[in-house]
Amino acid sequence: MIATAELRNAGFGTGHGISQRPELDVPTARLVVAAAVGVATFYIEAHAAARQ
Questions:
Q1: What is the percent of the chain with per-residue pLDDT over 90, rounded to a whole number?
Q2: Rounded to 5 degrees, what angle do the CA atoms 23, 25, 31 make?
Q3: pLDDT: is 43 or 31 the higher one?
Q4: C-alpha dist (Å) from residue 8 to 3, 20, 24, 36, 44
Q5: pLDDT computed for residue 37 by the predictor
Q6: CB 29, CB 46: distance < 8 Å
């Protein structure tokens, strides 16, 4: 998820008080979302397995 944070810090996120930001291309945006979903799914499944 480090690359996701780097995109945010590069001005693509809504943080850091940026009012205008560059537009992220669709393939990159989809990649970021897919990566976040993959990591979240891993943590949810790992947590569920640890509880069994």
A1: 37
A2: 125
A3: 43
A4: 9, 13, 11, 13, 24
A5: 94
A6: no
Is 2 in contact with 35 (CB distance < 8 Å)? no
What was the pLDDT predicted at 23?
80
What tokens were used for 45?
Answer: 């499944």
Does pLDDT of 29 surpass 90?
no
Mean pLDDT of 18-46: 87
Could you identify the residue written with the tokens 């930001």? Answer: 21
Based on its alpha-carbon atoms, the radius of gyration of the chain, rounded to whole angstroms, reads 14
Helix (H, G, I), strand (E, B) or coil at 24: coil
Q: Letter for the amino acid at 44?
A: I
Quick one: tokens of 8? Answer: 């945010």
